[in-house]
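Re: [ENG-882] Designed sequences occasionally contain unexpected residues at chain ends

Forwarding the minimal case from QA. Structure tokens:
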């Protein structure tokens, strides 16, 4: 009887994982080997890389170039730390990755961009693709060449057909979202004058604000990034001609001068900015903010007041965008970071809404000029459609994690999502219920094995006191 029950569970697992495999396409990696001769390399000197899922049909001449996120390194020590992982070396990158959200290749999950040429540019330079230092230290052998990597990848994509693009978007999440801002006009200049070319920044609008101790931590950090990578000459000249280059790493000093149409998707309570700009570990040595940063539901009334103050500063920093029809925004009141690459926040039946519109619909309506979209959400916790991140505890809760990867970093904190309402945000596809404990290890072993073969892991719900976590897509090695 028990063997039959276990067999039924295994059959269900196979069915679910095959279904999930169909939902997300796995796209192989492409290395830009000829970039090495130009010095356009990752931190460790390895070649740049990207993943390309070719367009077809009506999307044959449309291109979506998405830049990966992953924080920044601000000095030799933190950059050396990246040489041993995928954020500093293409040797450590997965051979295939899943495309979901704005990169999804299925119409029901990505109605307007599913058949475009969709590219994921891998992030391995630590400077949002702005660095360019000729000298290479013979001891560390670090290469600060992010701007060259950007140029080399663009050159290859242009040769593969992007030079004939009729529609094009440069986009990115987090540090990649900042990339799409800083390189927005540069990207536009590469493409035909008659093409519809626009920029999309997801969770890339990092603001220059003091932390809870009154220190300008993030300004100091970005200044170190610009100095270490030699970024000044590759930041928008419209900004560096007026301000110190260290300030030109902040979107609020750049966006008013951007001439290419651009759209901003951002949470007013961006979880990365709350954790690293408002309350970094260095400003909270006693760890009073630790629980709050993991889950906004754990925040005290005083902490929520400070977060509301941060939202006010964030919205003030947005005012420089103005009301130009060429600039759009979807600013929700979720505790989240990066919402375009994750299917549940990009386009599903319970995705976050503003003006009864999902992020996918808002971006597409704006891009195709079907309607303007310039929406700012009411303050937390007014929006019941939000997906709020809940992070797992870190081993060192007091440690500042500014240089760590963002949502796309497999080694970073693994988040789950929770709704503001009592409704579950995601319907679990695999729940362990009324199963003997002696079978759980076997089931999990099979689950992991099948996950490695298929490439995804299902959503797992809590049962009988178990908390087996929640993961989205895994990369195939």
């Amino acid at each position: 009887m028990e063997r039959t029950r276990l067999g039924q569970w295994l059959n269900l697992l196979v069915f679910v994982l095959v279904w999930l495999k169909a939902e997300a396409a796995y796209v192989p990696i492409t290395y830009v080997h000829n970039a090495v001769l130009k010095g356009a390399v990752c931190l460790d000197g390895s070649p740049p890389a990207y993943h390309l899922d070719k367009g077809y049909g009506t999307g044959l001449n449309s291109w979506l170039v998405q830049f990966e996120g992953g924080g920044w390194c601000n000095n030799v020590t933190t950059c050396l730390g990246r040489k041993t992982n995928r954020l500093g070396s293409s040797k450590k990158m997965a051979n295939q990755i899943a495309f979901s959200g704005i990169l999804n290749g299925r119409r029901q999950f990505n109605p307007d961009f599913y058949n475009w040429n969709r590219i994921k540019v891998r992030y391995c330079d630590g400077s949002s693709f702005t660095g360019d230092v000729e000298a290479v230290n013979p001891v560390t052998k670090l290469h600060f060449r992010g701007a060259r990597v950007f140029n080399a990848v663009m050159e290859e994509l242009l040769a593969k057909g992007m030079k004939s693009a009729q529609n094009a978007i440069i986009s990115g999440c987090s540090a990649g979202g900042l990339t799409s801002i800083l390189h927005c006009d540069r990207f536009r200049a590469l493409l035909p004058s008659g093409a519809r070319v626009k920029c999309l920044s997801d969770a890339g609008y990092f603001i220059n604000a003091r932390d809870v101790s009154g220190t300008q931590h993030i300004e100091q950090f970005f200044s170190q990034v610009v100095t270490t990578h030699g970024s000044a000459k590759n930041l928008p000249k419209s900004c560096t001609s007026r301000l110190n280059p260290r300030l030109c790493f902040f979107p609020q000093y750049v966006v008013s001068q951007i001439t290419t149409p651009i759209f901003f998707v951002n949470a007013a309570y961006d979880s990365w900015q709350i954790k690293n700009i408002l309350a970094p570990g260095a400003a909270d040595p006693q760890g009073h903010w630790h629980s709050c940063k993991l889950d906004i539901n754990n925040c005290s009334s005083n902490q929520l007041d400070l977060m509301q103050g941060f939202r006010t500063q964030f919205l003030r920093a947005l005012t420089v965008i103005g009301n130009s029809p060429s600039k759009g925004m979807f600013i929700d009141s979720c505790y989240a970071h990066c919402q375009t690459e994750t299917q549940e926040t990009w386009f599903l039946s319970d995705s976050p809404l503003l003006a009864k519109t999902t992020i996918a619909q808002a971006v597409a309506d704006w891009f195709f000029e079907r309607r303007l979209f310039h929406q700012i959400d009411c303050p937390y916790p007014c929006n019941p459609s939000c997906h709020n991140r809940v992070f797992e505890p870190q081993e060192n809760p007091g440690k500042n994690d500014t240089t760590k990867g963002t949502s796309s970093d497999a080694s970073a904190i693994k988040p789950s999502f929770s709704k503001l309402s009592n409704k579950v945000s995601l319907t679990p596809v695999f729940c362990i219920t009324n199963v003997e404990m002696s079978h759980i290890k076997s089931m999990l072993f099979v689950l992991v094995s099948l996950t490695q073969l298929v490439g995804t892991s299902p959503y797992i719900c809590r049962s009988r006191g178990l908390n087996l976590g929640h993961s989205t897509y895994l990369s195939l090695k």
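QA comment: On inspection the terminal residues look reasonable. The first helix runs from residue 2 to 23. Proposing we downgrade this to a documentation issue.
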